[in-house]
Amino acid sequence: MKKFITFSMILLLLAGVISGCVAQAAEEESAITMRLAHNQGETHPVHKSLVEFARLVEEKTDGSIKIKLYPNGQVGSEREAVELTQTGAIDIAKVSSSTLENFSKVYSLFSLPYLFDSQEHYYQAMNSDIAKEIYQTTSDIGFSGLTFYDSGTRNFYTDNVEITHPDDLRGLKIRVQPSPTSIKMVELMGGSPTPMPYGEVYTSLQQGVIDGTENNETALTDSNHGEVAKEYSYSEHAMVPDILIMNNSKWDQLSAKQKNAITEAAEESTAFHKEVWEQAVEDAIEGAKDKGVNFSTPDKQPFMDAVQPLHDEFAEKKETAKYYKEIRKLVEEE
Ligand code: GCU
């Protein structure tokens, strides 16, 4: 009898192990791999935050979702990355909110110079329901926003002209992101705006196609702009967030647990990014100084005065008025 019980127990155990293996194999078989594209290199902080996002998604879905990253603009410009996300050729993309201005007018708000008064104001707005509502404004054209990543403050830098005042931009060809608001900004400040995708900026600086551009400090090192541009001036004219967007049909195919995991992973990766970002900016400044870049801090008031007409326009325009007022109101409530 005892022998019989022992034999039955072994059989039960074996059955358990076998069914466990079958279940695991089934889960692995049905595991989804999603493609995530962005245009920065693998040393850039946003790449590290996206690696963390991918790790968190895999962990939180017990491996049922894996994310494969395509960095370095492998799928093309940011505009192309958005279009591919729209059609579902890729599932997720990290692009500048500036690029999204061409898909939903509301995003133009984030390119509005001096919209945010401080980093606190920026984080307050980006972590609020205002941003979440904006993420949904593209839901009828195939994709929605999941979260944002800090992309610092944007400042002018040129080959050798220190920008101390908007007058210094006169006659200079300044590359801007392909966004109507950024083009208008440089026009109002007196420069000649030259819109082009990020991937073309280094060569254009090198060949003198442009005299300068504007971006955060990591562009000087991670994209090597500091090899050519030697004058970086803290006009701090914009804080343009990066946005993580996802194809809607892909989202709809997921289980409630998987959707929840992606939402949580997105939020947690944004917090992770805040930490790596600050360090990355410090490192970029040091790295750029080693390449001979000079950093200067002009008086911001003349730059702000120059773009006041854009503020008046945004406060009136039907696409932006509501959100413009809500974001500005946060300052008064501080
Ligand atoms: C930032 C941003 C990129 C964007 C780039 C640009 O670096 O993070 O997503 O492409 O600006 O100026 O185009």
From TrEMBL:
Protein name as it appears in the record: TRAP transporter substrate-binding protein
PROSITE patterns membership: PROKAR_LIPOPROTEIN
Keyword Signal found: yes
NCBIfam families (alphabetical): dctP, TRAP_S1
Organism: Cytobacillus gottheilii
Cross-referenced InterPro entries: DctP_fam (IPR018389), TRAP_DctP (IPR004682), TRAP_DctP_sf (IPR038404)
UniProt KW keywords: Signal
Signal peptide: 1-25
Residue intervals passing through the bilayer: none
Pfam families linked to this entry: DctP
Stored SUPFAM superfamilies: Periplasmic binding protein-like II (SSF53850)
